[in-house]
Specification:
415 residues, alpha+beta, 6-stranded antiparallel beta barrel
């Protein structure tokens, strides 16, 4: 069909409607086919990701070496001098002079303080005066008794007079002895006004000042604390009743104090005391650790963290306790390792000393169980007593597992 365009004067041919071709029809079908193919490919990748064979495990190995295995009991204690002497006062009075202070080195018998002696000097003079008076009376009475004895024989005095004079002499002799005791007691009290050191050592505490009144009527006051020898100290350690059975005299002990956190002090158990200490129904016993203190680093009252070695083996083949607890595939408790990817088997009861145990070794790329016997266990290593493993062998202590992100199923993203 021909048509003439009236505006431009040109002819235009119109094709039938059923003969018109639309290019967009083939393009749409191609896009749908490509999308379906992509879905199939992604589904195949997902199936392969989920059904792919698991990679062989990668084991974490540790070499067996020689060393020491020791079992240690941990406790806390307090550093104290071996002997501390309490210096008190037997008499009451006012402190007149103080000659010793903190950290003063004193000798036995050295004067440290003095109580006002005037009341006791007066008491001594009174006692001595009473003694002199009674002594004079006794002398006169004895002279009279001798004269009466001569007169009785001459029948110039009665025998009763002589007997009464003899009784008076005995009474005065008793009074003189009592007066002498009072004089001795007054001298002793006067001597107690001088506070002297009973031992040689170092003053660690002073509880008096000049002018202070000391009252010794009801309780002996503590004036000074003197440590006999600060070069030899002890740690009074509180050991629980569940551990005290393994502690013996002579066991080695190490301890640290907060004043020297990087320094370890070594000593030995000097005494295990039988007296229990009960605090809030918790029973502990005092295990005394003796330690030398030549540089005076340890001071009375320091808190010590003590480790008492109750058993020890020297230069033995050591098995890591992780190897004793390991079991292939037992990863349930170790998956919390997360990003590190390192896992260990669930913790099994640790073997007792001398009882059989088992370790896993890698032989021909396979984990093989080897029965062994272990001895002393210190919580990190166990002593190897017997078994088909030697120094230098590598035992399995853990497994390297896949990260949690790879174990999750594949998920499609948003198209």
């Amino acid at each position: 069909m021909r048509r003439v365009d009236a505006g431009r004067g040109r002819e235009r041919t119109d094709a039938p409607v059923d003969e018109i071709r639309t290019p967009h029809g083939h393009a749409g079908r191609t896009t749908i086919a490509a999308a379906a193919l992509g879905v199939l490919v992604l589904a195949g990748l997902a199936v392969w990701w989920v059904m792919r064979p698991a990679a062989p495990p990668k084991y974490i190995l540790a070499s067996l070496g020689r060393g020491n295995v020791s079992r240690t009991i941990t406790a806390t204690g307090t550093v104290n001098p071996v002997m501390t002497v309490i210096v008190g006062s037997y008499v009451s009075g006012v402190i007149r002079d103080v000659y010793c202070d903190y950290n003063t080195r004193v000798k036995k018998g050295q004067l440290c303080a003095r109580i006002d002696p005037r009341p006791y000097e007066a008491a001594l003079e009174q006692a001595e005066g009473q003694l002199e008076r009674d002594s004079a009376q006794l002398t006169g009475a004895r002279a009279d008794l001798a004269r009466y004895a001569a007169l009785v024989n001459q029948h110039l005095v009665s025998r009763m007079t002589y007997t009464d004079q003899a009784a008076l002499v005995r009474q005065l002799e008793g009074s003189v002895r009592a007066d002498r005791a009072l004089v001795s007691n007054a001298k002793v009290n006067l001597g107690y006004t001088s506070i002297v050191s009973p031992v040689s050592g170092t003053v660690v505490a002073r509880n008096i000042t000049i002018g202070q009144t000391v009252a010794a009527s009801f309780q002996t006051p503590t004036l000074f604390l003197i440590a006999t020898d600060l070069t030899s100290m002890q740690v009074d350690t509180n050991v629980s009743e569940s551990d005290i059975g393994a502690v013996n005299t002579g066991d080695p002990a190490d301890f640290t104090v907060e004043a020297f956190p990087g320094r370890t002090f070594r000593g030995k158990i000097a005494q295990v005391r039988q007296a229990p200490q009960v605090v809030q129904n918790v029973v502990t016993y005092d295990a005394v650790v003796g330690v030398a203190n030549p540089r005076f680093l340890l001071k009375p009252g320091m808190t010590a963290t003590v480790g008492i070695v109750t058993a020890e083996r020297h230069d033995v083949v050591r098995i890591p306790d992780q190897a004793l607890r390991f079991s292939p595939g037992g990863l349930s408790t170790a998956r919390a390792a997360g990003a590190s990817g390192t896992a260990e088997s669930p913790a099994a009861p640790e073997p007792r000393a001398g009882r059989p145990a088992r370790v896993w070794v890698l032989r021909r790329s396979a984990a093989v169980a080897v029965p062994i016997r272990v001895g002393l266990d210190d919580g990190t290593y166990s002593e190897l007593v017997s078994g088909d493993v030697r120094q230098g062998d590598r035992v399995i202590v853990g497994e390297q597992v896949a990260s949690p992100a790879r174990s999750r199923p594949f998920r499609f993203g948003h198209l």
